[in-house]
Amino acid sequence: DGGITQSPKYLFRKEGQNVTLSCEQNLNHDAMYWYRQDPGQGLRLIYYSQIVNDFQKGDIAEGYSVSREKKESFPLTVTSAQKNPTAFYLCASSLFAGAGANVLTFGAGSRLTVL
Amino acid sequence: AQKITQTQPGMFVQEKEAVTLDCTYDTSDQSYGLFWYKQPSSGEMIFLIYQGSYDEQNATEGRYSLNFQKARKSANLVISASQLGDSAMYFCAMRGQGAQKLVFGQGTRLTINP
Questions:
Q1: Does residue A88 sit at the B interface (CB-CB below 8 Å)?
Q2: What is the number of other CB atoms lying within 10 angstroms of the CB of residue A57?
Q3: Average of pLDDT values for A74-97?
Q4: Could you tell me how many helices (H) and strands (E) chain A has, helices first?
Q5: Mean local confidence (pLDDT), A72-90
Q6: Chain B environment of A99 (Cβ under 8 Å)
Q7: Is the CA virtual torsion B87, A7, A107, A5 positive or negative?
Q8: Residue A47 pLDDT more than 70?
Q9: What is the torsional sign of CA A46, A22, A41, B34?
Q10: Contact status of A105 with chain B (Cβ, < 8 Å)
Q11: Are B110 and B54 in contact (CB under 8 A)?
């Protein structure tokens, strides 16, 4: 079955450490996205990528980095510069980037806790 | 810029009753899309329904329908004959004209009581 796989599901990090969250999709979608969700809040966009080797900052990109070397993969690195990284991270993809009924398909999420 | 407002932090409904989840939006775009997603306790976001700003008919998908009132900038989700499995967070979202991203509201936690 096609879908999005995020790993790990749970991750604990010490302050000052970088961590990388994995996101892999087998839907043959062009566009991929990373969102952050904090308790009681909606989703906020961190980064998105429309095609391989290209990505753009979202609303809260500071302290994060991404790469898009393969169509299927869009890993997110949470760096030590991110002041409050404890959150739930959701990866998504869509068939193409753009407007209209372009539905985002989401992964199951990764919960990061900073100790 | 787009903004989504969901004014109901939580709702409690008896099983088999219909429920309406409120969503208002703000945009200056003429063309835009409105989405509803369900997030169960497992965390995954599940797409429910889509409404385009130029669609004349309200969107329906099974037990879900979207009450789209363009002049009021309202896009309420209606769930008919609620089930225990409908208990979850529900998010309204929109994409503006030419925009790449979805903008989400803060969500409504729906609890269905037996």
A1: yes
A2: 13
A3: 92
A4: 0, 11
A5: 94
A6: 31-33, 95-99
A7: negative
A8: yes
A9: positive
A10: yes
A11: no
Where are any strands of DSSP class E within chain B? 3-5, 10-14, 19-21, 24-26, 33-39, 46-52, 60-61, 64-69, 74-79, 88-95, 103-104, 108-113
Give the single-character DSSP code of A29. -
End-to-end CA distance of chain A: 36
Token pair listed for A69: 């070397």
pLDDT of A76 over the 80 cut: yes
On the CB side of B23, CA atoms within 13 Å amount to 30
Q: Are A77 and A19 in contact (CB under 8 A)?
A: yes
With beta carbons less than 8 A apart as the criterion, state whether A13 and A115 touch. Answer: yes
**10 Å Cβ neighbour count for A4?**
24
Tokens 């199951």, residue located = A108
Residue A29 tokens, joined: 């979608």
For residue B53, give the nearest of B39, B64, B72, B68 by alpha carbon: B68
Q: In chain B, which residues have pLDDT < 50?
A: none
The answer to whether B96 contacts chain A (CB < 8 Å) is yes
* pLDDT-derived band at A56, boundaries 50, 70, 90: very high
